[in-house]
Amino acid sequence: MSLPTSWQADWSNLKAVVLGLARSGFSAVDTLVELGVETVAIGASAKPEIIEMTEVIGSRFIPGEDPALLGELGFRPNFAVVSPGFSPSHPLVQSLSGEGIPLITDIDLAWRLRDKVKVAGWLAITGTNGKTTTCELVSHILNGSGRRALACGNIGSPILDAIRDPVGFDYLVVELSSFQLHYIGEIHPVASAFLNFAEDHVDWHGNLANYFAAKAKVFLGTEKAIIFNEQDDKTLEAAKAADVIEGCRAIGFSLFTPQPSSIGFVEDILVDRAFLDNRKDRALEIVTEADLGEIASVSDQLKANVAAATALTRAVAVSPAEIKHALSSFQISPHRNQLVAVSAGVSFVNDSKATNPHAANSSLTSYDSVVWIMGGDFKGTDPRELIQTHAKRLKAVVVIGITSDQTARLVTELLPGAQVTVISGDDVMSQAVSAATSLAAAGDTVLLAPAAASIDQFKDYAERGDKFIAAVRELK
Predict the structure, then answer these.
(1) pLDDT at 1
(2) Residues with Cβ < 8 Å from 462, sequence gap 6 or more?
(3) Shared-domain flag, residues 85 and 170
(4) Whether 140 and 82 share a structural domain
(5) Does residue 10 form part of some domain?
(6) Residue 475 confidence (pLDDT)
(7) I need a labelling partner for 362 at 20 to 30 A (CA). Which of 50, 67, 180, 332 fits?
(8) Rounded distance, CA 33 to CA 54, Å?
(9) pLDDT of 263-306, one tens digit each?
(10) CA angle 328, 334, 337 (to 5 degrees)
(11) Are residues 147 and 253 in the same domain?
């Protein structure tokens, strides 16, 4: 059976199972119960307070991941809402799929229910690196220009909470992970952006081709503009193959002088040659690199994120003056190339959000002499090329992560003669910062840019970054 496509439709005869009961999973349960859908959640574990709230609203939680537990639902579900943590190979996903149960995400459900209060325009963003900062930039610019916008999806508020907001929004800026895009069905963003592509999440997707296929789905069904990175051939490949609404434009962004229908930099000025009538002969000034220096240290990654955010907001008619004004008050979120302290001429920088080699590459490129704290769960990616690329700027390497010995052997193999320190045991980050400090001298940067996920030793990248900050402040 096909699912309803409106909040106003009758959902009360349907039954659903929700895989996972973290923030997005609970918001799905809460939404479905409000719609009158008989709903049960299932997953390995959940916080006691969330389980309690689930029971209070009239649902329940089944702990475990054995497909046999589906027999405890008490019904055959009409559909399943799959949280991003459940890969296609997960036994529960395999069992539901084998039974012909439709699998959707909270993103799909929100698209169907977007008319509850006020139908917002959606701006969809993905990429291996930079999508969170770009989402925050876009949301900040839209709000600064007088539109009501919210960053959601894989960032901030669960998207189902956003569509149930009592006031509603003009725009939802939807960060989409490759996990969400793998399962996603039909949505129609006003504009969408594919920022960049590099190896990541191979363990989840099975191979790099599957990862790219998922990412490329961000352009599917876009109405006005698809935004691609002119310096990234894979995003261009996705743009050329995109199945979009007739009349949708392809807009490039880059760090170079833009061609017509592109946004880029002329020397130190970001200009728009896409969203103006005479784009053959003219360009609109957006912002200067000096302006960007008020946000954070100017890096290629920051410039690319601002260029992409400019393309997305220009696609919905935000003026250059409004963009420039909004950027003057923007602040980078913690854990992204964040200068924590300078002591005795040594800079301490927290880029815990560099959870893959592509992100770490952007961070390492910004500094000349680095004592690098790296390692963790590489998610099936290979840091070999990253290490070789930055060999000349790496003064020393401090390795963390449960596979630190194996990682250290790789670093030593690629950087013969380099100072490599392995950290293990308790209080990992404090030891890592202490070791890095002893190896650094005036003019060096102690950089936490792990190139890996954190879940092997920390709750998440934020906890990893917070512990780095605390360790640095203890040393000062």
Answers:
(1) 61
(2) 334, 335, 352
(3) no
(4) no
(5) no
(6) 85
(7) 180
(8) 10
(9) 999 999 999 999 998 988 899 999 999 999 888 778 888 999 99
(10) 85
(11) yes
